[in-house]
Amino acid sequence: MKFALGLVAVAAVSLGYMFSGNNSEGLTPEPPIHIEALNPLTGDEIRYLAFQVFVGGANPEIPFDREMIYTPKAAVARMVHDIVTTIDAKGGQRTRLAFILGPISFDHSDDEVRQIIDDGFDIALSENVSVGFHIDGAMFWGKRHDLTANPENVEWTDFDGTPATGLKLDWAHAPARMVYNAPQIQAEVTRRARDVIGAQISSHLKTLTSLGKEDAFAGVIAGWETHMGQDITVDDRVGFHALANRGFEPGRPPGDVLAEISSIVNEFISLWTDGLVAGGVDSNRIYTHVAFLPRARFEAMSTPPGLTYEMVLDVAPSSQRPATAFTKTARPGFSTYPVAGTFDQIKQELALNNNPWWASAEGTNIIPGDPPRTSGLTMENYLARSFNHGAALVTLFGWGIGGTMMPDNPFRMATEGDDAIATYRAFLSQ
User: Fold this and answer.
1) Which residues pair with 335 in a beta bridge?
2) Is-above-0.85 flag for pTM?
């Protein structure tokens, strides 16, 4: 028997469509009252201005889509060199220019993961900038037949055990959602985080310490908008296999199914961050990555009577309640496109958790959608929303995307515009 979520299931299609970026009409930018300039930096914490360099395809200018492969070091090095020479500033006393390699996924073999990490540190030392890494903790695992062939590792769309078929994303094709609390999945997450990613990063950190260049490591982002999500076939949420593993069933559902699933997601994020720490990475250089439907946006929507923000928050594609970003072994991280309400809600969540340092793990100064829209902010206004409010790392998406075939890609234009470059240089002078 199907375990339905009532109004949540009814509204998921329309609200998910609005949230996933298939149109930009429901996406409003930060209002003028939120426009602010970058403050002078104080304190000893190094702030990293980083640029995402996509690995997973043959060319980092063309992001991956399905199964990911190793991206040749030379191709990555070309893009990093373009970033470094175009910006022409590498940092002052309190700032560092960085690039972030990712997604590092289950589709990459252990040897490929180690090579990506080796490449990153080699390029960083060659260019005299900092490097970080961005892990896809769950989405791209289609090559791992040892995991996908085990039905215990594949999510359900109901308590009858109907297998999920594919994860609903608006930007790529992904296999069915893995079961976050399946024993084999949890064992493999711990092994990869501790023995492969964590250990390989740790080995390079020893070299950086010997060279007096510890700041050349910007950090590792553990997750890529980690969430439970929806199945692409039934257009409804998954997570029932994980709930069954916790002892729930049709006649005994959780009192709050969405809160229970959120707890499962947070436990999975913590598994990654705990493993990285066990592998030798300082928890102060580990960040999570969660995206969420802003409350302000929900309140601006026309929704069915009785549908609450909490009922929709964890159902919209790629969305998970922001509280899941907080673990004991990492700093929190969020996607931070300048949609109305996003930054205010992040500040509220940070205040509830003693205002830790945090990361903008993904974003740029543009309103996502089809088509994307300008935000009305300058790049300085956009960066101020993070760096003025405790962000230690801001990762900008869009550099070089589209290459010569799509030089007018909106994300690229926002990230590489003259105003943006001038802002980067001024920030990196501090």
Assistant:
1) 362
2) yes
